Amino acid sequence: MLELAVLGLLQEAPMHGYELRKELATKLGTIRAAISYGTLYPTLKRLNAAGWISETAPEDAMVPPLTSKRGRIVYKITAEGKERFAELLAQAGPETYDDAGFGVHFAFFARTDRATRLRILEGRRRRIEERREGLREVLSRAADRLDAYTLELQRHGLEACEREVRWLEELITNERSGRSPATPAAETSPENPRPHQDRP
């Protein structure tokens, strides 16, 4: 998943390692804690060895202040890397339904075709529904054997699953009707055109 994220960001612009880590943290949001230099630089090394990215040493004037020698390297995606990114983006298997996999793919949904987006969203919904049913079973069968804090934790998990299922169902409905998540149906109907849409 980190491979997909790195290639996607480098397709936007070449970056230093520290810039990449910063952008990854911004792009991936809640799963950013899993990204450290200890995981990022081995990934960059592997991508470079595969020919999917290239490394260049910039002019001294371009070197960010207070960075290490390794941090001065600029990483750039190659033509082969762009092809690899497109391949990864088109994947919609079970690994894209898990928390980390889904988060990374969702971060690049704007560049993913609608059919793939729908497959991932529907697969993620099934995964969360399974998790929700498991939590419901625990609460129905073992609630009387759980202490108050463990019980509250299970309830919290169940509520989170229920919220995510509702969110996913809304996204799936939008995808099937051709709307983006931020575009309410009322704004796109012929009777309710977007405000100021004729302004230059």
Automatic annotation (TrEMBL):
The keyword DNA-binding applies. InterPro entries: Metal_resp_DNA-bind_regulator (IPR052509), Tscrpt_reg_PadR_N (IPR005149), WH-like_DNA-bd_sf (IPR036388), WH_DNA-bd_sf (IPR036390). It comes from the Bacteria. It holds the Pfam family PadR. Residues 6-87 form the Transcription regulator PadR N-terminal domain. Keywords: Coiled coil, DNA-binding. GO terms for molecular function: DNA binding. Residues 172-200 are annotated as: Disordered. Residues 118-145 form a coiled coil. This is DNA-binding PadR family transcriptional regulator. It comes from Krasilnikovia cinnamomea.
